[in-house]
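Subgroup meeting minutes
Present: P.N., E.W., G.H.
Scribe: E.W.

1. P.N. recapped why we're keeping a running log of single-chain structure predictions: easier to compare across weeks, and new members can see raw inputs and outputs side by side.
2. G.H. added today's entry (73 aa).
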Amino acid sequence: MTNDVLTEATTKVKKLRRSRTDKMVAGVCGGAAEMLGVDAALLRILLVAATLFGVGAGAILYLACWILVPEAD
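Output recorded in log:
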């Protein structure tokens, strides 16, 4: 019984992966948009705003995700 519950729970978990199809630079926003179920353009606008108003914090976050998040299969 517990193996069925564990298997069912792990199949429903969404993993953050960089998108191969919906990308402008590295696919970070496209992959996050797929995981969250929102439009990638909205995330891109928010990232630009975070970069401009957060003194580059958005760009550092994007670079970290580009390096650390694996690409989708």
